[in-house]
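Response to reviewer comment R2.3. The reviewers asked that we include at least one raw input/output pair. We reproduce the pair for Diguanylate cyclase here without editing.
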Amino acid sequence: MDKDTLVSLVKFKRWMDGETLKAIKAIDESAHPQKRHLMIRLMNHIYVVDMIFRANLTGQQHGYTALNTPETPTLEELEVKMADCAAWYIQHVDALISSDLEKVITFRFVDGGHGEMRAIDMLNHVLFHGTYHRGAVGWMISECGGVAPKDVLTVFLRDHNH
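Raw output as returned:
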């Protein structure tokens, strides 16, 4: 995969994460408290995994002991955190050269197990992991009478990738 495509995919992730958070905001919290809370937890899980892999990509310690945080952030806090994290990924990927993507990185999984992945595989994990969980959140948004965002790359490329 070329770097420009990868940057576009990370921009797509940033856009779709934001659209999903906006759709969650529109859900009536008093009518659907458990599902709305679960949606926020799933989006926070995406953020935590993004941050874990950010640390892995840079050889730093992430400090997480689980794949979610004990506390649930507000949607407003999560919007800021996810946007900042996505901005980091965009800048990071844009600064890479082709050989950086093939670099094998060793790390520790949250459960303590040994991990070893190429940078491109880590980036692909971040992209696909978020898509998987946003799909579940979109389903719950619909179940609560909301309008799930169109989580499709073609819409992003047509309307938002300028």
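The two ends are 20 Å apart (CA to CA). The chain has a mean pLDDT of 95. Further pairs are available on request from the corresponding author.
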